[in-house]
Amino acid sequence: MKVNMIGNRLKGSLPKIGIRPTIDGRLGGVRESLENQVMGMAKNVASFITQTVRHADGSKVECIIPETCIGGVAEAASTADLFKREGVGVSLTVTPCWCYGSETIDMDPFLPKAIWGFNGTERPGAVYLAAALAGHNQKGLPAFGIYGRDVQEAADSTIPDDVKEKIVRFIKAGLAVATMQGKSYLSLGSVSMGIAGSIVNEPLFQDYLGMRNEYVDMSEIIRRIEEGIYDKEEFEHALAWVKKNCKEDADTNPPQKQKSRAIKDKEWEFVIKMTMIARDLMIGNPRLKDLGFGEEALGHNAIAAGFQGQRQWTDHFPNGDFMEAILCSSFDWNGIRQPFIMATENDSLNGVAMLFGHLLTGTAQVFSDVRTFWSPDAVKRVTGKPLTGAAANGIIHLINSGSSSLDGTGVQRINGKPAMKPYWEITPDEANKCLENTKWGPAVVEYFRGGGFSSTFLTQGAMPITMSRINIIKGLGPVLQIAEGVTVELPADMNKILDQRTNPTWPTTWFVPNLTGKGAFRDVYSVMANWGANHGAFCYGHIGADLITLASMLRIPVCMHNVSDEKIFRPSAWSSFGMDAEGSDYRACSNYGPVYGK
Fold it and tell me: What is the pTM of this model?
């Protein structure tokens, strides 16, 4: 299986990082003595960023530095013009010295911005940092302040670890903000079974994310299948790949409702075509133009999408489970590639959470029902055995028939431990193991009358994950929930008993959130009880702090999280809205409002 480093598959260039070296503007000795140090600081930061951070598509991040330092408003304006020409989406100001505060700051209201003020005694970089942040806050342009804990020598060009952590957190979140801008969320169909998240909230996308909404009726998939608007050569290749790699599981339907081999074979062909067509609808396909379908070749420039499926589609046609699972995975018949974001049941709010996780990490995401809390007593009653180890205080069953990427098996490895890696780090052997550990059960017809196939796997244990979810609250707007935790494995007999009480043909993840002993995280039951909807999305790794930083840039308050206080990084203005961190987050987000909604 080959690795496809395809780079940016969407319309619009990837955002760049603008590094702003600010300097004391006084000529005649002061500025001249600082030029090399300030510019060296900028180049050093740029080198660190390009070596450390990648775009979600695997491309290297590019940094733009002006030819001269910024000593006043004229040079600030020239730099702003340069950044616009170069497509800069994130702004980082660096300085070791005093500079003219409001004359040198970045005034672009749409760029996420931060300032690193060097902690040294020879020149007052920290004084500038404080003055510039005060200017930002007074002008209503929130900025992140970065200040190293320990004093450095003036000639020390190293970047302290605590500064590195904040720079990376800021850059990742800023790139996510800039990457979403101007892209689309594509709804394939409409509202599924009355699920609130599939009532697409355009103000969320347009005002908070800077995105547009596109809508296509599900009948477009049928039109393209019946009129042959897909690459038939690719289809034959995909069909052969599926026959080799996607192992069909036992049919759990009653014998009288099981479909014939011939019908199942036709359904396999159908769901493969669905997958190709949904991808083409999202990002276009130049091959279609060669086949005479110029309009269809363009796509909708969708960075994320959702498929309604139930029930108007699934009561008659094969379900979207294979389509959603393969698109969300880091590989298909064309090789290892960037995963897509495709939400089950068109739950656009869970789709946004998946998009956040992917943009921050480059990894595939898993869409789940937050289905069941199993208490230790309930497990003992049902299975006759106690929960032990990490699961001793109870477990949450994450399970859904659709957008669970096959990466969610956890069979990829980082330092020998279960993981979900960015696609450019996945080996062909790891991709094959994901396929080997997944079976495809014929759809349960009481749910899916039209048939289809659902992925079936069990996530390996001891994998750090972060579950998140966006909810819309009338009168408040969007809020973000975050729960860091770990996957666990149960004894095989216990897993079988619990899993088959729900649906044995769907992928299962047993989740234990990290507990804090208070609030929504005082116990596992409280996490389940406080979760705001029926769905959640999980991402590999503990990225709660990154999500909090991203949410603050988007002015989305965080209503629930278990991230330690020392990792929380928000714009400096947030501290002026009260001493309680979460209360100040709500007040600041309300005060500034959505970036694109003004």
Answer: 0.96
